[in-house]
Amino acid sequence: MKEIEMERVFLIRKLPNKLKECRKITIRVGDFFEPNKVDALKIKQIGDNFFLVKKEGKSTYNRVEHSIRIKKREFEILWKATMQKHKKIRYFYPIGEKICEIDFYQDRLKGYARLEVEFKTDKEMKEFKVPAWFGKEITKLNHKIHKNLGTVTFKEMKKRYSDKGIALNKIIYN
Predict the structure, then answer these.
(1) Which of 67, 97, 121, 170 is most buried, with most CB under 10 Å away?
(2) What pTM did the predictor assign?
(3) CA 32 → CA 101, 105, 127, distances in Å?
């Protein structure tokens, strides 16, 4: 399956109301090479679904993502071959007709949280009214900040943001 990923990414200023009522899912991601290269190759577990994923594109706001469904056993074999791994809990929070995906990173990154909103058109993306509980937009920094995401700690992530003049507050929820 091939799809265009068009999104804006934000930090979280404060958690939204009724988050615990939202659907959530566990996501595991394993990268085979540098995850932010134009030709990123990775595997993803999204709940009980498993994928081999190839991302392409140089744009900050959209990239082409190719996904192939694989079996759990194939995922577990490939998981051992990845050079970087991370895990997050994703909540699906409605904002009008949009669904905001709020990610709470686990393990070494516990305390790191961010959110993204996906769009179908450039116009829709530009006209999006950002809710007050959203924090700083990091769309343009996202791929640089997330370099080697599967190998860094929250403390290192906080330093990366600080180096860009952005305060990163620890947010723990689950």
Answers:
(1) 67
(2) 0.87
(3) 24, 20, 36
Structure tokens given for 13: 């200023």
DSSP symbols for 23-37: EEEEEEEEESS-TTS
Q: Which domains does the chain have, with CATH numbers?
A: 2-163 (2.40.320.10)
Determine the Cα–Cα distance for residues 85 and 119; give it in Å rounded to an integer: 27
DSSP 82-97: -SEEEEEEEEEEEETT
Cα–Cα distance between 162 and 87 in angstroms, integer? 23
Q: For residue 131, what are its two tokens? A: 């809710």
